[in-house]
Amino acid sequence: EAGVAQSPRYKIIEKRQSVAFWCNPISGHATLYWYQQILGQGPKLLIQFQNNGVVDDSQLPKDRFSAERLKGVDSTLKIQPAKLEDSAVYLCASSLTSGRGETQYFGPGTRLLVL
Amino acid sequence: SQKIEQNSEALNIQEGKTATLTCNYTNYSPAYLQWYRQDPGRGPVFLLLIRENEKEKRKERLKVTFDTTLKQSLFHITASQPADSATYLCALPPSGSARQLTFGSGTQLTVLP
Question: Do B93 and A44 touch (CB under 8 A)?
Answer without folding.
Answer: no
